[in-house]
Amino acid sequence: MRVYLHAGAHRTGTSSFQACLSANRGALEAAGFDLAYPGRDGIADGRLALRLPHPRHARSPDDAWIAGVTGEIARHRKDGSRDLILSEENIPGRMYHFYKGEFFPAARRRAKLLAAALPGPVAHLVYVVRRYDQLFVSAYRKRAEDNAVPTFAEIRDRMAGMERGWPELITILRNRFRPERFSVVEYGARGTSAALLQRLLPEGAIAAPVEPERSLNLSATDRALKLLQARYRAGEALDRPAWQAVVAEHAGDRTDLGFAAFTPGQIAAMEKRYADDLGEIGGMDGVTLVR
Q: What's the predicted TM-score (pTM) here?
């Protein structure tokens, strides 16, 4: 058996891709695939709950993590012969570390432990990358929906000044998983989730996969985020339906209130860095850049 791994990145339509897996689950299972993906954003049949170490777990032994991940993956397998499609954006780590100016600080260990727990070799690894300025703003806005956050002005210098970036992460994923094929897809070339699924799998594995019917991750407007932050800072705790209601109520107000923005100089520097980094990734052995 072999593994087909979709590892993110965050804020590149991962939830929509997992909804696509859900929408095509019957056809994929009939074609001989087992599926493992989480149930974020209301994906009812998503059950994957990977537990991988964060930086605070630096002293914890590897064996316990590997055993836990091995057991979790086993829950999603019908038998030992079927290929596995696994999709999880948190494989390299969480977005929270961006606030500290850290780009997936535990990625090397997390990838090593997951690779040790996988039931077979990775046939194809697909990873979608995005411009740094867009990624960081989108990550900040997403967290601000359901958490009190510092103002963007307080943290943007740390984000803009990160030393590590996509080339370092892609190198980690390549070296730890050693996939037979590794496709790094630039966000602008991602296409639909159905197209990304066809890219991940062998040609002809599934005919004409369907696109998910509903759109996930409705983006909160500046107005909604400012109102939510005022409530969080006043000590309110909102459950998911409550904060989603605020997002929906103000979805039509597209007024730019400056909730999260880098300076023009920071944007220009990150655009150049991203272009340079794509060039570096495109020249890596064992990696195919799609742009």
A: 0.94
